[in-house]
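Ticket #4471: structure output looks truncated?

Reporter: J.K.
Steps to reproduce: submitted the chain below (293 residues) through the standard prediction queue, then opened the result file.
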Amino acid sequence: MSIEEGAVQAHEAAANAPTAGEYIGHHLTHFNSTGHPQASIIDFSVINVDTLFYSVTLGLLTIFLLWLAARKATSGVPGRFQGAIEMLVEMVAGQAKGIIHEEESRKFVAPLALTVFVWVFMMNAMDFLPLDVIPNIWQQITGNHHAYMRVVPTADLNATLGMSMGVLLLCVYYNIKIKGFGGWVHELFTAPFGSHPLLYPVNFAMQMIEFAAKTISHGMRLFGNMYAGELVFMLIALMGAAWSASGTGVALWVGQVLAGSAWAIFHILIVVLQAFIFMMLTLVYIGQAHEGH
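Returned output as attached by the reporter:
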């Protein structure tokens, strides 16, 4: 191949390459049940298959790892894996004991909180995979250059709101279990402003607003942080794409390596912190269900 032919091919490749907006739009689009490209929105008629697959797979992996740790637990000096799980168990048990004072409830809630922490951490940690690896593998499998695949379930609002709604159902369950159905209904209409009949509608409205606000903020907080982190990784990847397309500007490649490394290190804190916050809010909301206004 002559130099001229190589230059022409490079020019054609650059001309056919997606723009920055198209690249980011492609990586923010889900593989869903409709077969039509669609970003992450709340639509109960659409199932984001990629989010469902990775969340369920990582949930099963979480259960397997915790089961494996329990199965291999010994009374002697623990290994690294057992020691790490024991640290997590003690941390979660301590937090649960300080928030939920009902010992019978903690028998279920503490293991649940541990599972939630590990599960959310693993879903968040999918963000550390190179941005284009799994989508490119999926494109090779399907033979479709425009195939879509998102691998971070917690960067999908449907997933995080689904988990927060699960916590809401648990709160309703423990409200009824601890206070009785009649006692909980009475609280809905008499708290927080008192039991005067004229205040019943106001109290009920405030209670519904409180439940809705806690549930929405619970899911939105996790989604917002992970979605923003995913966007930053995409912007950093564009630096390398620009260098690869132009064949010049080594500073872009160096910048991508430095920025990617720095953001990945900082993102470790975000991944762990957001899993911890989601777990703690789960404990707090369930703990509030055990208490009366």
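Triage note (M.O.): checked the attachment and the full token line is present. Residues 1-15 have pLDDT under 50 and may be disordered.
Status: closed, working as intended.
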